[in-house]
Amino acid sequence: MTRILIVMMLISSLAFGQTAVTDTAAIAYDGQGLMRGKKGIEPNAGQWKTWVIPSGKDYRVPAPPGRFESRAELRQVAELVNQNTDEHKQQIAYWDAGAPAYRWMDLINARVMAGTPTTAFPHRVYNYVALAMYDATVATWESKYHYSRQRPSESDSRVKPVLEVPDSPSYPSEHAAAAQAAATVLAHFLPNEAQAFQTMAEQAGWSRVRAGVQYPSDYYAGLDLGKKVAEAVIAKANMDGSSIPWTGSVPTGPCKWVGTNPGNVGAVSWTPLVLTTASQFRPAPPPPCDSAQVQAETLAVRNFPRTFNTTSKAFYWQTPDGLQQWPYRFADKWIAEDKLDHNAPRVARIYALLAAVYFDAFIASQDAKFSFWYIRPHQLDPLITPVFAVPNFPSYPSNHSTFSAARAEMLAHLFPTRADFIRAVGKEAGDSRIWGGIHYEMDNVAGVTLGKSVAQAFITRAQNDGSQ
Question: 41-238: what fold?
């Protein structure tokens, strides 16, 4: 069989006008230009557990064009590479800066940092965009290794790629699939910008054709796949309970938070991704506000020796970077350091886990807050002057402690050699709420415990998602 494949490979080489491939021990090709026996990047990623779609196999794309259709495509690719302008080269470099999902997460980060409106709950946008790109990538990989189509330059030596050829099958395009998935979900949340997102998606996918590493048919199949996955993700987003209006009332009485129109209160009815219920890890009730513990903790908040350093950190953790972006910033840094930036499935998995754990941690924290409606320190003690405006919702547990602990634990799992460092970052984020005069220590402790519990549920899922 091996000798037959080699002979057919040589015949195919002559038919396409290519230089014969000599590494037949690692790679062999059949007469249709299909790759056989190549290990490549994450060959089993097509079987990884998905978040929304049933499986990658359920979204397998139709078979790629045959040999004769591919000949015309090869000529087109060769011509496109030779005709690249400086603008085309800039686009190729831009979209090749990292894994296919990178630029799209960076786009959301940039919006958040600039204060550009990204819905009332940017973390929902992060979540569903990341899940769509991950599921689209898994489905792409399932099709890639099912069909095992050669990259253009492996079929025809006249194609001179301007990028390093990825060590994976060509069809369908991973960049087109991830880009279309992201653009479609973003357009759902931000419909006024739909055309801009679509233009970016097409540019991202087509840049791989102009770079000489994929066929036009790879691009079109990728776009189609990404859109189908996005539609499933949007359907899930529409059913997550976030559109259900809150119809309750603010309770009154001793130790109760005082205010109107509490923020985030509707999240108590949202549907989690992994947790069985929003209350699965609900902390124990806080002690009465006239107890010795709370009186001591209130006094500690009032008398905390605020310095320039602690106050500046309290402000930082209230910035868009401190609230939303920091986990992705560290992830991007470590992805680059660990040379994962061109491993599309691994990177998409990292983003999905970071975004998803925050989504459930948010729901769990609001469930606890609006179960206890606990009074804020400055409401209990008017002598406390917070260093910035206090968020308009109850005190216990601390949202920031919950979210930061959850995301720090997830990063520690994903990048274990940095575990001690990132856990210290998460701890500082929680501690900063006391430094800022807006939380008790018990809020912080309960939030950290809650966040770690949520993270462990996600880590358990991650350990059984087939990526090991």
Answer: Vanadium-containing Chloroperoxidase; domain 2 (1.10.606)
